[in-house]
Automatic annotation (TrEMBL):
This is Carboxymuconolactone decarboxylase family protein. It comes from the Bacteria. It comes from Oceanitalea stevensii. InterPro entries: AhpD-like, CMD-like. Residues 28-103 form the Carboxymuconolactone decarboxylase-like domain. Pfam families: CMD (PF02627).
Amino acid sequence: MDESTEYLPEVYQSFRRRFGDVVERHDAVARAVDDAGPLDERTVRLVKLGIALGSQADGAVRSNVRKALEAGASREEVEQVVLLGLTTRGFPATIAAWTWAREVLEAEDRP
């Protein structure tokens, strides 16, 4: 497994291997959706992070933190998106997302 996918769960990787054609089509739709409007990649990732937080999707929170950072978002921007969940999604959901986001942020700090 290469470094860029080492954090992906085995179940996700096995699904991708088993249903490669479907996954390729899904990935193409995802790219088309991301490119369908005027938002830049950084903003798209921050919005998706907020959506992931709202749905309490652990993997999506982690993924979108990684992708937001790769797209140029700052740690502070990622943290603010998580904090914004407090008054909309509630304290427990925000703390869960904070935990997932911090794990990714801390991993980014390691050499």
